[in-house]
Every structure is written in C-alpha cells, then in structure tokens.
Amino acid sequence: MARDNAWCAPAEDDGAESDQQQQQPLILERVEKEAGKDCRSAALHRLRKHCSCTSEKAKSKVLDFFPIVRWLPSYQLRDWILGDAMSGLIVGILLVPQSIAYSLLASQDPIYGLYTSFFSAIIYAVLGTSRHISVGIFGVLCLLVGQVVDRELALAGYLTESGIGSGISSNDSAVLLAGQGNGSVVLGCDRSCYAITVGATVTFTAGVYQVLMGLFQVGFVSVYLSDSLLSGFATGASLTILTSQVKYLLGLKLPRPQGWFTLCKTWYSLLVNLGSTNICDLVTSLVCLLVLIPTKELNDRFKAKLKAPIPFELFVVIIATLASHFGHFDTAYGSSVAGVIPTGFLAPQLPLWSLIPNVAVDAFSIAIVGFAITVSLSEMFAKKHGYAVDANQEMYAIGFCNILPSFFRCFTTSSTGCQTQVSGLVSALVLLLVLLVIAPLFYSLQKCVLAVIIVVNLRGALRKFADVPRMWRVNRVDASIWLVTMATSSLVNTELGLLVGVLASAFCVLGRTQRVRVCELGRAAAREHYEDLTSYRGLRTHPGVAVFRYEAPIYYANQSLFKKSLYDRVGLDPVKEKTRRLKFKKKTSEQEEEVADVTYRKPEKDEATAAATVTLDEKSRRSVRSVVIDCSAILFLDTAGVNALKEVRKDYEDLGVTVVLAQCHTSVRDALERGGYCPDAGEDHGGERRLVFFTIADAVRYVQNLSAANGDCDTKC
C-alpha cells in the first residue's frame, strides 16, 4: 500500500523546536487499486457474463420474465381467494363505467375502452411484479392518445365534430373519402375505424419503446422524473381534460383544437357557442355532479372502514341509462348518447405501419409518462407492503400491455389503482361478461354522464392546487418546478409540459451549483471543529489565516463563479491586485524621473512585507497570509475545476499568500493528482510543497508554522 506522503505536510526539519509543541498532521495510507482491464478484456468479460447460458440461468430468466410463475405456486387459495374475488368484482364493476367514459377522452368508441381494460388486466397479472396495482385506462394517457387521434383524423381528411348544424357525429359510420391528408388511410375505413387504427398504432409504438427500454435496462430513467414534476404534469393535464369535457357537459358538438394553447382555444369556442347549450345534457350533468361528488367524498372519508368502495358510478350509469332510454333523450331533446356498443371481439389486425413515422414522437412521450406513473405507484405500494419491484420488468410488463392489446384495437394503458394480481384476473372476468352480454344495454347512455365520471375522477389531481402554499414553504425549488410544469402542460401543450418539466428540474439542479457562495469558517472554542461564521455564534478565526468552504462541485459551469466568490470573501482579487501593483510601480518610476530632488524608494524590508502580507478591503481591516479551502462539500472536480484551483493557488502565491486544501474526498484527491495540482515529491518550489490535508486543523497548523518559520510570529493562535 502506498503512503499518502505527497498530500501531507512533513515535520519541520530546520532543527529549531517551536515554543509550543505542535501535533503531527494526520497521515493515511491509500489502498492500492487493482490494475484496470483494457477495453477488449472488459468487453469480453461482459459478453461472457450476459451471453453465457446455463440451465439455472435460463430458468431464472424465465421466472423473472413471467413473475406469475413465482408467486402463483405459493398462492394461499383458502385464505386469499375470497378477498381477491370480492376486490376483483368491485374493481371490475368500477372499471365498466370508467372504461366507457375514458374511451370518450381518447376519441374512441366505448367498446374499445372495454377491450383495453380487459386485455391489459390479464397481461399485467402475468408479467407485472407489483401485487397491488392494476393496469387499465388512465386519464392523462387517454388525453395524449386523443390529441394524436384527432390530429391524424384531421390530416386524413375526416370531418370532425363541428357545429350544431353540421349533422356529423362520432357515431356516423358512413364511409368517407380519404384522398386528402397524409394518404395513409385505407379505403372503406370510416371515421371510427380510422380513429381506433391511429390509437392502436400509437399504442403499439409506445409499447415497443417501453420494451426496448426494458431490454436495454434503462428503467433508471424514472428517477429523473421527480414527484413534483409528475404531480405538476398530472395537474396540468387534468385541467386540459376538464376543459375538454365541458363541451359534453353542455351538450355542444365542438372540434378539439389542435396545436398549442388548446386550453385557451377550447374555452374561447365554449364561450362563443354557449348559446347553443343543450338543456337536457346540462340538467343531466348537474344532477350527476350533485350525486357523484358527495358520494365519492364519502367513499374517500370512510375507505378505512369500508371493505370495498361503493360503486356509485355504476349506479349513476344504470339510472341515467334507464332515464335516457325511457325518456327518449336522444330523439326528443337531441342529447348525444353512446350509441351501438357491439358484443364479442373483433378479429386482430396489424398496426398501420405507414402511420408510425407520424406518431413516433408522440408515442415516446406516452411511453415515458405511462412507465413513470406505473413505476411510481408500484414502488409506493411495494414499500408499504414490504417487497421489491423491478423497474425494468415493469417496463416489459407495461410494454406488452400496450403491444399485445394493440392488435385487438386497444389504446395505451397505465396503473389505475391497487389490487392483487388474482383480483386483476377477476376484474377481467367481469369485463368479459360485459363485453359478451351487457355492453349493448348502454346504448342510451348520455355522453354528458360519461364526462361527469371523468370530471369527478379529476378531484385528486385538482386538489393539488390547495397544496401549493405548503409546497412553497417546504421547498421553493420543487414548488417552482410544479408550477412551471403545470402551467406549460395546461396552457401551452401537454407533451411539451413534460419536456419543460424535465428541463426545469435539470436547470434547477445546475442552478443550485451556480448560486453557491464561498463561506468563511471559524473554529469552535471547545474543540477543533469549523463551521460557517454567519450561522453560529462563538466561533473564532485565526489571525493571518482564513478558512473557507465551497458547498458545491467545481466544474466547467461554475468554476469562474467559484473564483469570483472566493476572491470576494477573501476581500482580494489577485488579478486586480497585481494590476494595481504594476500601475503603482509604473507611476512611481515616472515620479522618480520627473522629480529629481525626491527619490521614492521603499526599504527592502517593506517590499518583503508587502509581498508576504496582503491587506484586505478597509471594511474587514485584517491581513491574510494563508488561505485554507475546506473541500469536504466538493463532491467532484472536472478538468476545469482542477485548473481553477491551480489558478487560485498560483495567483495568490504571486502575492505571497499560501493556499492549501483540506478534507478532500478520495475522488477529489484522485482528480487533483491526475490534474497535476500538486508537484511531484522531487520537485521543490521555494522550499515549500503545495499540499492537501486530511483535516482543517492540520492545514491551519501547517500554515501557522510556515508563517512562524518566516518570522511572522504574530499569526499563531
């Protein structure tokens, strides 16, 4: 093992003992590092590790890829089946109205929402690692899919729902000519057919992205999406969802605006067409809101006492459907209804390959959002119940929950709630029953009732506005990220809000390293401990020695700020001081030439003193001969950071001020050594070594001894 001598001050060998016995500096020995492998050897080692195949490894891979094979044999049938069956039944009942409602948000017919919930529940039960979440329709993802669908419908030349008198509704199945737009439409495919084709293609592409991310083990990307970012994004998207549903609450047939600032465009269209409100839809919406909001609040308040939530949404759907059917709301009052919902399953079909380039960017943002939501919920429940989830396996599970159902005309899914994996299968059975038998009974269900269900389920996200003052008090940076992400997602563009949130988070992290200032440290009276002078009372400084700390890494982006802050705290900018001295010498020489009878010449002793002592600004009125930089808070240095420290040392050295470092991390020491901060042991610069110390006390004693050896006895404590 190599001794770290080059980093520590040697004992004084001038033969003269100081008046006060000084403690020897701390010396530690570094552990010798193993010789690094070359790139070829490292690559071969990784290939052997990942490409070798044994029976045990193959079995482990299969079990990891299909987690159901691990937990199903240990399933306690007698103890758990009753609870799982009841939970699955309740969740399945709740999923029926939600699936129909959220298909409206995704610009799809109701049957496709039921397909999506059914297939995703089965696939996640087989591939998912979380035991307490279900995968199904999620509002934010439906909004993103719906925006893409509406955009592609417009590009393909399909007529959208426009004014009241247009006569075009989402239930039209007339074959529209598709010779315009992007030219990717199959002839004979009506608006509804092309809408689900676009939705399935987006879903397939998002699933491929998620599987590829799982394959390349990039599940770690979820850590870059902070809670404040996801919360702000969800709240902003919720505002957009709320706005998009107002037209159904009022019974207006308005096209969904495209591009940026859709929130403002939608509200403008609503206000312009407010006179065309359908009174029947408005009254139905108000009645459903008055029923659902209090009942959902009761569910939330007594959820600890209830074994399962009461399905008030299903009750409202049943009653509203019966009222609409027997009251003939669609024919008598022009109310928009769900229409024909077929039973059974359609034959699987491939995505529209020519459409993938158009939706690739949108699918990527959908993939990231869906994965982030699923992983955050999975980890929350796993931590609560004491087990672990695999982020990469979750990526596989969600990816296949999108890829496989996309062949059966489904759209993007994510986590929707908590249940066990077996109860997810029970929920799928409930949905299967609806798909095969009950679905046509929802023909007369008003769309405004579906919009009410969507709006009521936004309560959780919209409540975040009440938490903004608390978030601001706790952490202003996180609150700012939340506000920026929310405002961008709602007011500008939903997908852009996610990108802006990520960039805002990154810039906030970088900004914290830009705002750090050098603080001066003082020594505690009772022990050798140093803290910020402005934060604690009773600290004292050493005459002639200033100790400073910089609480951030030093790298290319903040190295100039570090130097400026240090010079400000020391009270002396060495570059400006050297310039001032040059001007002073020049002025002195000119005066000597002009005035023959006056000779201005400083004594040699005064010149030596001026070189050894730097007087700070008049406000501080003290002199510093040595500067100790505490590096304990510096996590890393890059090349620019090492060069900055070298420049600080050299600039102050030219003025006779000694600069030493203390309490450097091992990685910082290695960076200094590689960057040539300290001279080799054999080099000698004026009989002194520019060293790094393990403790601040050692560094202070060294510079004090150094000053005492030079005859500056007044600097010793």
TrEMBL record:
Protein topology in the membrane: Multi-pass membrane protein
Annotated region (Disordered), positions in chain: 1-23
UniProt xrefs under InterPro entries: S04_transporter_CS, SLC26A/SulP_dom, SLC26A/SulP_fam, STAS_dom, STAS_dom_sf
Domain STAS as annotated: residue spans: 535-703
GO cellular component, one term: membrane
Coiled coil regions, renumbered to chain: none
Keyword line: Membrane, Transmembrane, Transmembrane helix
PROSITE patterns given in the database record: SLC26A, STAS
Residues spanning the membrane: 80-105, 132-149, 194-216, 228-250, 270-293, 314-335, 355-377, 422-443
Gene3D superfamilies attached to this UniProt entry: STAS domain
One example GO MF annotation: secondary active sulfate transmembrane transporter activity
UniProt-annotated location(s): Membrane
Designated name of the protein: Solute carrier family 26 member 2
